[in-house]
Amino acid sequence: MSKKLYLETLGCAMNQRDSEHIIAELNRADTYECTDRLDEADLILINTCSVREKPVSKLFSEIGVFAKHRKEGARIGVCGCTASHLGAEVIRRAPSVDFVLGARNVSKINDVMTRHHAVEVDIDYDESTYPFGEYRTTRYKAMVNITIGCDKSCTYCIVPHTRGEEISIPSDLIVREIVRAVEGGAREVLLLGQNVNGYGRRFGVGVVENVKNFTELLRTISRIEGLERIRFQSPHPLHMDDAFLEEFATNPKICKQIHVPLQSGSTRILRAMKRGYTQENFLERCAKIRRLAPEAAISTDVIVGFPGETDEDFEATMAVLEAVRFEQMFSFKYSPRPLTEAAEFEGQVDSAIAGERLKRIQARHNAILDEVMHAQMGRIHRVYFDERKPEGRIAGRTDDGKLVFVSGGEELLGQIRDVEIIRTSRTALDGRVI
Ligand code: 5AD
Ligand code: SF4
User: Fold this and answer.
1) Hey, how many other C-beta atoms are within 10 angstroms of the C-beta on 322?
2) Is 300 in the pocket of ligand 2 (CB under 6 A)?
3) Is the pTM of this model over 0.90?
4) Which ligand is closest in space to the CA of residue 192?
């Protein structure tokens, strides 16, 4: 009889991919079936995120709920970034937790399962050539890691302390993984890395590699037959050189959707964040994207209320929003994180002021988004259908990443079709296959 796994994944796409690896590895030792019923699970895992304080504080109350409602003998494991960061403290604070497995120690899942109160959180551990087992949540799209870790030192960010130094995965392993996914029915790949355009700077010990940078990797991957769409997440604005932007704009397999994390529009704050670019550099890169690829959607991340942020600094961020008109914007209130430089900075911004700024920037972005989405009315998009929805609807994505629903049957799944947009809203489009 197969065992049942209750797995909750928080945070970013990297965590979602780690969760797939966890399932694949568990299935090497035993057969597991995923369940969303806590009380029937034999194993309960939380794949955590520590990028902001809120999910971390929620973790311990959640563990309490899990411990109370679990089936007798069920085990609880805490994985991911908060596991890396808190290590054995997780078990000290919540003794019902059986093991702690860091974000960079996923391959040790079967090992920690066999040891009482095991803690594996080494952030120097190199999994860049580890042959993970095969498991994917969907057959139509494949997430593929191209780097692990992060070499930046943004002063607000905990990730370098949870995922360690940046190491690139050898290109032949990446290509082999994508080819396998394509053979299994995937026509789209999402390349993952903390800074995808840092690809090629450092490989694991003993690795010999010919592909030198991200642009070359994109060219190599786009030669894979049967692969039709390439997305990646996320590039760093500082390393988006001209060769990369030209490849992005002209390679027909590269989807015209690009995440360019701004964080702040104020050059003074960017310096305090150690982002390495100015407002002008950022605007120039985005203008170049708009010029070379006018059809591309640009998305971004913004932090408001970083220590020392004045009204004027915040207005600079608003000005960048106005200039670039991001198609997507993820905005966050600054959250001081342990181990980061900015947590010690003078001038921490009052939470109510930061909250006001967040409200203002989100309201302005919503208005922009309404215009962007409304302008899709009557347009024709190539949509890759990958998900069945209730009431006879099928969902897919346009090349530039917009969510589209159509009425239709399962035969649409895995197909790329022309769709006319017949209704729009802020979050999605309705269309008709033509
Ligand atoms: N506080 C608020 N937001 C943060 N992010 C990273 N660290 C913090 C922090 N300390 C945001 C950044 C990043 C996104 C994943 O999370 O905008 O791009
Ligand atoms: Fe992903 Fe960052 Fe959260 Fe870790 S801390 S799960 S890298 S978003």
Assistant:
1) 11
2) no
3) yes
4) 2
